[in-house]
Amino acid sequence: MRCDASTDRELAELTSHWCRQTRLLDWDARHDALDFLDPSHVHADLGLEANIDDLLAKSARNAQPDLLERGNQYLAFIRSHPPFGSAGELIDAYRRELRARREWAEASG
């Protein structure tokens, strides 16, 4: 059976009202429970794994620390705010925060 556990409850509660890909699924442990990922967002289908510990222990391929850091900052931003009404509202608010941080850093010298 297949199951994707990539979205946690907190993130789903903040975004699933406008992002189908972050909706939580009920899984009965007997049938596949696949989320609503856009197929173009899937890098590779590695097939079925009975135990993913070995996969998780491997070093990430093509991982760029700065890109991972930006992704983590974006998730932290989402988690530290009440739910936004749409993806556009979230993106606009995040850009405003980035701009404010940049301006503060420039002013601080």
Number of domains: 2
State the end-to-end CA separation: 55 Å
Give me the strand/helix succession. HHHH
Low-confidence stretches: none
The helix count comes to 4
**Structural class estimated from helices and strands:** mainly alpha
Number of strands: 0
Report the major sheet. Answer: none
> What is the CA-based Rg, rounded?
17 Å
Query: What is the typical, i.e. mean, pLDDT?
Result: 84
What is the share of helical residues? 40-55%
Q: Shape from CA axes?
A: globular
Strand content: under 5%
What key attributes describe this structure?
109 residues
What does this protein look like?
- The protein is mainly alpha-helical.
- It has 2 domains: 1-58, no CATH class; 62-109, no CATH class.
- The protein has 4 helices and no strands.
- It has helices at 9-15, 53-57, 65-79, 87-108.
- The longest helix has 22 residues, at 87-108.
- The mean pLDDT is 84.
